[in-house]
Design the sequence.
């Protein structure tokens, strides 16, 4: 439900009265995802992959909500077992740049500011950053369109540790996690996966109060959610 292509196809199928199954693979903006061309789309069925997503969807939609097995997660877990290492001496930062100016009305901007998040983790996790051998930065797919700009951007904001920075050269997140001891980021769905794999993961947002509608990532024992206010 995220891309323009997906939304256009959903709308066309809805107008043609086809049986419509929607897949929700995140935990926020459910209504907005299905508000297309000023019409609230009512699907026949919704597929989700965890209990938290099912609870959120049930509060919003009246259609059938099906909880499906997450084969992607299971496959990642199977692959990750082969990479277990005692010498885990790297940190990973999941890049998730601020929305463009055209999306300033999106509620995402109300609780996310990557510059502040970077400053926060450097200050409050300074010991980890000092002791680590490498800091891996995994760019968002959209950032590869302006890769030189974004690399310079992160080198500037991580300037104090720029000699330790490595930009991910792998397409697979699992490859990047081989020797990672901690993962940092904002609200990327990748953080849910890394915590699922048993890696200590820190999801950092900026909002004084978070409603149930903005539950962000589902809680688990390996995921630490940190809320820093706008004054930071």
Sequence:
């Amino acid at each position: 439900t995220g891309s323009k292509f997906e939304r256009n196809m959903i709308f066309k199928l809805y107008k043609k009265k086809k049986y419509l199954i929607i897949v929700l693979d995140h935990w926020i903006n459910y209504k907005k995802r299905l508000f297309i061309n000023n019409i609230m789309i009512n699907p026949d069925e919704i597929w989700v992959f965890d209990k938290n997503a099912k609870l959120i969807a049930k509060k919003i939609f009246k259609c059938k909500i099906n909880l499906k097995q997450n084969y992607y997660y299971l496959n990642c877990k199977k692959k990750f077992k082969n990479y277990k290492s005692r010498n885990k001496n790297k940190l990973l930062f999941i890049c998730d740049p601020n929305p463009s100016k055209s999306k300033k009305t999106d509620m995402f901007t109300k609780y996310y500011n990557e510059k502040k998040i970077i400053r926060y983790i450097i200050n409050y996790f300074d010991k980890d950053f000092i002791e680590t051998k490498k800091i891996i930065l995994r760019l968002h797919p959209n950032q590869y369109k302006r890769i030189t700009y974004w690399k310079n951007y992160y080198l500037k904001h991580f300037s104090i540790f720029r000699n330790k920075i490595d930009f991910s050269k792998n397409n697979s997140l699992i490859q990047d996690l081989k020797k990672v001891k901690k993962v940092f980021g904002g609200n990327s769905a990748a953080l849910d996966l890394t915590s699922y794999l048993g890696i200590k993961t820190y999801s950092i947002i900026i909002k004084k109060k978070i409603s149930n509608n903005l539950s962000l990532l589902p809680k688990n024992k390996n995921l630490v959610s940190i809320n820093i206010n706008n004054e930071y």
The chain is about 35% helix and 20% strand. The longest helix spans residues 4-15.
